[in-house]
Amino acid sequence: MVESNSMEAKQKLIEKPVPLSGIRQQRASSWREDCDQREGPKPEPEIEEHRIDVIVEISDRVKNWIGSVGNAKERTPSQNPWPSIPKVPDQILRGTTPSDFKKFYEPRVISFGPYHHGKPHLQSMEKIKPLCAKEFLAASHQSIEDVYKKIESNIEAVRKCYDTNAMNEYDDETLAWMMLLDGCFILQFILFKGNIQVLREHQICFVQVDLFLLENQLPFGVLQLIFEGARVITMKDRIKEFINIGMSDGTSASEMPLEKPAHLLDLLRSAFLGSSRGGDKKMISKQQEQKAANNNNNTHHCWRMMKEFLSFQCLFQMIRRLFGLSQDNNNQWKTFRHIRELKAAGIRFQPSRTSFLTDISFKSHFFYAYLKLPFLIIDDSTKPKFLNLVAYEMCPDAPKDYTVSSFLCFLDDLIDHPDDVKELRSKKILYNSLGCDREVARIFNEITDGLVNLDVYEDVKDDIQKHYDKIVNTWIAQALHDHFSSPWTFMAFIAAVFIIIVAVVQTYYTIADN
Question: Are β-strands 361-364 and 369-373 bridged in parallel, bridged antiparallel, or unpaired?
């Protein structure tokens, strides 16, 4: 049996012989593997790159583009001794109809400067300018020839203040004469506070609005050239008094700075902001911010210690929500919408000490708080003045703080309904000369439409949000409103408490007798 199996195996080997070359290949491959393991990995062979050079000819047009990039420079402030007077920026005018532009940005009765000079509906006032120039120069004891020479000697500085396209229409003499007549009319109007005999009442009102339009400004340097030679009149004080009209906080005109303003609109902005007190306001704001940060850190530290002793996470979350303690108050969303919501949370409103737009403060107590806002007069000139101030802040050479724009956005957050305006009127914060609270709410909503809010008043909003997030404040404020808002509700509350006390005492003695 064994012999038969061995014979079959020999036959299979004879039928399928292993070739000698295959054996040699297997031995060679095993020998190469042993050598590779001893010598280590070999570097990969370099792959030759085949590049095809394509010759592209650059046209003269592309060369000009390349040259413009090479010659590009960082934008620097104008080297002109007088700041520029730009037109209304395009981003402000987007969505503005031609009728709205004429109503809020274009002068109604008189033009100052080259932008709107010569328009047909403004020609009637051009006849009055020579008479006003004659009266002002006579009152200031100046010669018209001397004033004209001073303006013409600075005509290049005047040209650089305005848009180049607007300057192409006027030669030096025409431009200098325009500056003389316009400047003398402005100073005469300011000197007599608008009481010019040749002007009627409605014209005086329109001139007061036209004086503060962005595209209707004269360089303040031109006004200085005209009034600096006045021998009797102190025009600086008169200009401050004129700008200060409507600031109802009793602020002296001497407190308003007059340090190289760009134009009258820039001076009006300084009067609204109270630039002379800007440094003190910043210092107070930093101190309040540091104090609030310290109190916030101490509060969070105490609650973190208590959290270690609380076994139920939900209980801690409920307590934290009840008293408005959040882990990150800097990145929280502002959930309050208008004055009615803030009033329901126990926030009361008071007028600030001044009418400066920067004079806004918030103080929070246990279950009530006070928000102080500057006094503001709302009339027909409010909307065009604020729109032009916002347009001025959007210009490249304007101040970089955007305070007026931020103030308007802050008021827009508070005012959403006529009842909000009514509440501010009752607290002597707003004086509405328009007669309709709905119109006031609409004005602030329209002024801030499409306006970017840069949150200059972010610290005040954060403090309001912290107080607003405390649910217990809303409960206590609602209870005080329901039971102590009038003498009758207070008397009813006292009567109810008295009846409960009598009932408790009667029940006690009844049980004691039994």
Answer: antiparallel
- The whole-number pLDDT of residue 59 equals 84
| Better-predicted residue by pLDDT, 506 or 392 | 392
- Res. 283: pLDDT tops 70: no
- Kind plus residue range of the DSSP H or E element containing 378: strand 376-378
C-alpha 402/C-alpha 392 separation (Å) is 10
- pLDDT at position 327, please? 43
CA distance readout (Å), 205 to 11, 189, 192, 269: 128, 12, 14, 20
Beta bridge partners of 430: 376
Distance (Å, whole) CA 384 – CA 382 = 6
Confidence (pLDDT) at 488: 66
- Geometric angle at alpha carbon 159, from 156 and 161, rounded to 5°: 115
Structure confidence at residue 341 (pLDDT): 84
Mean pLDDT of the residues in the chain: 78
Beta carbons within 10 angstroms of residue 306's beta carbon: 10
Cα torsion 297, 302, 303, 304: sign:
positive
| Tokens standing for residue 472 | 């217990």
Helix (H), strand (E) at residue 430: strand 430-432
Closest CA to 140 of 100, 183, 90: 183
**Cα–Cα distance for residue pair 262/254, rounded to 1 Å:** 19
Instruction: Count how many residues are written for the chain.
Output: 514
DSSP H/E element including 133: helix 129-139
Please give the structure tokens belonging to residue 421: 């305006």
pLDDT value, residue 50: 55
Q: Residue 469's pLDDT is what?
A: 77
In 3D space, the residue among 212, 208, 116 whose CA is nearest the CA of residue 404 turns out to be 212
Q: Are the C-beta atoms of 290 and 410 separated by less than 8 Å? A: no
Task: Return d(Cα 223, Cα 150) in angstroms, integer.
Answer: 11
Q: Describe the crossing of helices 144-153 and 220-227 by its angle, rounded to 10 degrees.
A: 150
Radius of gyration of the chain (CA): 40
Buried-state track 60-79, b at ≥16 Cβ within 10 A, e below 16? eeeeeeeeeeeeeeeeeeee
- The pLDDT assigned to 150 comes to 95
The first and second tokens of residue 389, run together, are 């101030």
Say what the pLDDT of residue 340 is: 86
Q: What angle do helix axes 278-309 and 458-468 make, rounded to 10 degrees? A: 30
Section 136-149 average pLDDT:
93
For the record, the structure tokens of 316 come out as 């801690």
What pairs with residue 371 in β-bridges? Answer: 349, 362
CB atoms < 10 A from the CB of 374, how many? 20
Which pLDDT tens digit goes with each residue over 168-198?
A: 999 999 999 999 999 999 999 999 888 888 8
At residue 174, the pLDDT reads 96
